[in-house]
Amino acid sequence: MMSGSVITVAMPKGRIFGDACRLLRDAGFSLPVTFETTRKLILDLDTAPFRFILAKPVDVPTYVEYGAADIGIAGKDVLLESGRDVYEMVDLGISRCHMAVAGLPGHRSKNPYLKIATKYPNIASDFYRRRGEQIDLIALNGSIELAPIVGLADAIVDIVSTGTTLRENGLVEFDRLMDISSRLIVNPVSYRLKKPVIDEIVEKMIRATEGTKVGMD
Amino acid sequence: MTQPFMFERPLGLRDTLPEAQRSIARLKSIFRQELQRWGYDFIKTPALEYAETIGRASAIEDSQLFKFLDAEGHPVVLRPDMTTPIARIAASSLRKQPLPLRLAYTAALYRSQRKEGGHPSEFEQAGAELIGDGTPYADVEVISLMITLLEKTGLRSIRLAVGHVGFVNAFFYDIVKDKETVKQLRNLLYNKNDVGFHEYVASLRLSNHSADRLNTFIDSRRMDNEKTLDFLKDLTSGSSIPVHSYYHHIVELIQLLKIDHLEGNIDLDITLMPHLSYYTGFVFQGFGGGLGFPVASGGRYDDLLAQFHRPCPATGFGIRLDRLMSAAGADPVEQRKKAIIYDRENAGKAMQFAAREREKGQAVVLQHADGIDDIEAFSQQFETIKRFLKSEETETE
């Protein structure tokens, strides 16, 4: 919790992790070389009062909202889907991709309402509500591309980075919903109680994002 | 429909067991004493209010209201906040009372939550409202009172973020000249979405100068109080009269807080935007201890009483007791109870002894020996046990 002046940073494991580590190093954090390979879930820095916790990306906003972590790095997709009460302070510009609707080319739905499979039910229903279309949502947890191929759904709402997965499975993009990248998020109370330290981190991350290298000990 | 289990409670509601209830009672008595010392009078309002009046004026999202029909078929809500009912009273039953009014309360509030733990649907709040005084002195009084109450509970590292909704609205309107755009910008502030704010500003096709003013406005959160004030001065040069007068309110408030020696607790953050839409002027949130959520919030709501046909300025705050308990950490309130175990022969002696002890202020459990199932387990709950039994009369620690 928020004891002392240690700053706890929630890091997303998996796809974003490498990008996030590179950016933190650019911002001047001397992360240990074993950082990317360790199986530990908690890592304390020797050089500065920072503790890193390695969480599943969708859980990062949760750790930050409840104050178990002071700051975190989370994808905009996850932030939109979870709607957590946290400061979204910096667009880190890493792990860029976009949210899209995709399906089989030329597919015509036989369903009274479009069946949409997705890991992002809130984002998907919000998108179709704005369009005034009623849909049936099917919540899946992974390999979303399967759904239209096996006839589980008419289309999917998912993130697309290079489009390779879509192409290899014979799917095409119908609509582009929004651009996605990773964000620096901050717990509102940590921000008040540890303002000077967090402001410094934010400034350093902004500069690192702009490509300027600065040092931090 | 599946049947609920016997021990289940409706979604979002919870029981308060003796230990927690003692902590809450301690907080309440601290608050009651201190609020009375500041000359605030306590009032109580009903848990049910009409949806058409309080439900609408309270500005709580419809999805968060517990709404149903009363016996006459009127839509009613479980009160989602206390400020609105107090405004109703100030404008009706207390209409003849001279202003300013100083009113206080502790009450349970109800907001339906879909989220998980830490967001109960029923929670207790203590608060104060200062009605009829539009000066910054009233704002300082409620801020000072709120900090004092939090300090009295022993909460550590108390911080208060202070903003000004009126300033923000006027400043935004000055630049974008469109109410809907102001609302969008305000929403982004409320959602704490700085990234989205910058993106939205970029999409507005403003002049470089205007876009710059909006972008630096939000970056001012990262400045200390002195810098923020200097920054606001620069930012508002050439602004309209309302922006200037709000700016002077802010300067005045910070100076008054300095006189009151409270400036050290204050973080002037002009980007602070609370969820309740009735706020018109200064707004603030209180933080402290080790909790991820604000423990208290408040602000000025100069237009709310007009909705009840007694237009007058007002300001106030509420402290969430459930959050304060978590933030202040475990604070077991020791309750030293004495047990008296007696039998038929010694009933009179035991009862008189118990009465004498209670008179002295000692908590006493008077228990007939035959009513105890497991003497070992029973005894463990007490510091002292006195036996009034036929064969023995002893006291054990």
From TrEMBL, chain B:
Q: Which GO terms describe its biological process?
A: histidyl-tRNA aminoacylation; L-histidine biosynthetic process
GO CC, sorted alphabetically, is: cytoplasm
Location in or out of the cell: Cytoplasm
Transmembrane segments annotated in the record for this chain? none
Q: Where does L-histidine bind?
A: D81, M82, T83, R111, Q125, E129, Y278, Y279
The record, for PROSITE patterns, names: AA_TRNA_LIGASE_II
Q: Name one GO molecular function term.
A: glycosyltransferase activity
Main subcellular localisation? cytoplasm
Query: InterPro entries from the entry?
Result: aa-tRNA-synth_II, aa-tRNA-synth_II/BPL/LPL, HisRS-like_core, HisRS/HisZ, HisZ, HisZ-C
Keywords in alphabetical order, please: Amino-acid biosynthesis, Cytoplasm, Glycosyltransferase, Histidine biosynthesis, Transferase
Q: In which pathway does it act?
A: Amino-acid biosynthesis; L-histidine biosynthesis; L-histidine from 5-phospho-alpha-D-ribose 1-diphosphate: step 1/9
Domain Aminoacyl-transfer RNA synthetases class-II family profile stretches: 26-325
Q: Which family does it belong to?
A: Belongs to the class-II aminoacyl-tRNA synthetase family. HisZ subfamily.
Function per UniProt: Required for the first step of histidine biosynthesis. May allow the feedback regulation of ATP phosphoribosyltransferase activity by histidine.
Subunit details for this protein? Heteromultimer composed of HisG and HisZ subunits.
Alphabetical list of PANTHER family matching this protein: HISTIDINE--TRNA LIGASE, MITOCHONDRIAL-RELATED, HISTIDYL-TRNA SYNTHETASE
Name of the protein this chain belongs to: ATP phosphoribosyltransferase regulatory subunit
What's the source species for this entry? Sporolactobacillus putidus
Gene label = hisZ
